[in-house]
Structure formats: C-alpha cells, structure tokens
Amino acid sequence: MNVQDIYAEVDKRYSAAAGGVEAWYADSVTRAFGYTKEELSGILQDANLGLSCGNPLAIATLREGETVIDLGSGAGFGAFLAARKVGSSGRVIGVDMNEDMLKKAEALKALWGQKNVEFVQSQITRIALEDGIADCIISNCVINLVPEEEKQLVFNEMFRLLKPGGRFAISDILAKGPLPDAIKRSMALYVGCIAGASELWMYQKYLKEAGFNG
C-alpha cells in the first residue's frame, strides 16, 4: 500500500461515515468511553458519528479563553465539545481532510450558531495555520490513519502549532507489539483503525524527534 492509496481509501471511508449512523450506536460507543449524557446533548448528538476510541477531553483540562486545535475533527464532535469548555472568549479550530465531514461540521455550526469554532480542510501532516497558536491540541482515533511514512509529520506539526508550555490530549489505537504482515497489508483493517496502529515506543520516538520532552 502506498501513501496516496491509503489517503484515498481513508477519504472514501469517512465520506461514507459522514452520512451518519444510528443514534443508539453512536451514543453507546461514546458513552462507553466516558462521555456523559449531558455532554452528548444538542449539537453533540448531531455531530456524534460513533468514531471515538477514547475521550481526550477527559484529560485535556481545557480552560476558558484557550485556543484548541482538533486534529481529524470529522463532523465536529470533539471541536464542539471543546468549544463549550473554552467559552465565547476561546477559539477551537477543527482540521480534517475530508470534504463531506467538513460540510457536515459547517452545517451543524450554522444550525446551532456555534461562533467560536472554525474548520480547516487539510491533512494533519501539513496544516496552513501559524506557529504557536494553540494552548492545547486534541485528537480522537485519527493518527493511526496517517500512513507510517508520514506519522512523524503529525507530531512535528503539533510541536509547531503549540504555544510554549502547551499540551496535547490524544486518544488513539496503539499496538502491543509488531503487527503481522497480513494485517499491515489489509486496506480494510487500515481504514478500520487497526493496520496503521503504532507501537508505544514508536509514539515515544515521534514525540522526541518532534521536540517534545518530559
């Protein structure tokens, strides 16, 4: 599988996902990861496509007035929830490469009048945003979808975009050990967030080479 084939298949998979899922399924997935009934009300219910693999907002400790970037924001689920936490004086920027997801997110933003959120169409490896603008970066089950050859670029972008002393909160699929070749070669498992999973030591390497420490 080459890089462009992976991006094309991921884009196709998430265009299909933008069409929506049964509400009971999306709700059960997100509730299993600790999102509360109150968090899932209103705009969050509409933006919830059941694509989470965790709850980065549970550890992000977002505060009023902060600027947050959501990598792989999809229909806006994490971005809209972050917007509630940073308030009207804060700013949330959702970044996603998929046009259908962005259309859904923008429609929900307009419907609910969510003024402190904006969306940018971009791969998360090369983001047209200025350096050092984010207090916090969040991401939920997205980095595993980036081709292995380009994963380091994601962490480089995170380091570039964060303010000095900034932080990140990531939920992702990691592998306990090397994946069998049969799994790594499966495009179905790649777009299903399995075949592209990194091992923990690889994440640590990406972070260190990007400039993070501690």
From TrEMBL:
Gene3D superfamilies: Vaccinia Virus protein VP39
Taxonomy, superkingdom: Eukaryota
Domain Methyltransferase: from-to ranges: 63-210
Catalytic activity reported: arsenic triglutathione + 2 [thioredoxin]-dithiol + 2 S-adenosyl-L-methionine + H2O = dimethylarsinous acid + 2 [thioredoxin]-disulfide + 3 glutathione + 2 S-adenosyl-L-homocysteine + 2 H(+); arsenic triglutathione + [thioredoxin]-dithiol + S-adenosyl-L-methionine + 2 H2O = methylarsonous acid + [thioredoxin]-disulfide + 3 glutathione + S-adenosyl-L-homocysteine + H(+); arsenic triglutathione + 3 [thioredoxin]-dithiol + 3 S-adenosyl-L-methionine = trimethylarsine + 3 [thioredoxin]-disulfide + 3 glutathione + 3 S-adenosyl-L-homocysteine + 3 H(+)
UniProt xrefs under SUPFAM superfamilies: S-adenosyl-L-methionine-dependent methyltransferases (SSF53335)
Keywords recorded for this protein, A-Z: S-adenosyl-L-methionine, Transferase
GO molecular function, one term: arsenite methyltransferase activity
EC number: 2.1.1.137
Pfam families xref list: Methyltransf_31
Enzyme class: transferase
Family according to the record: Belongs to the methyltransferase superfamily. Arsenite methyltransferase family.
Protein name (record): Arsenite methyltransferase
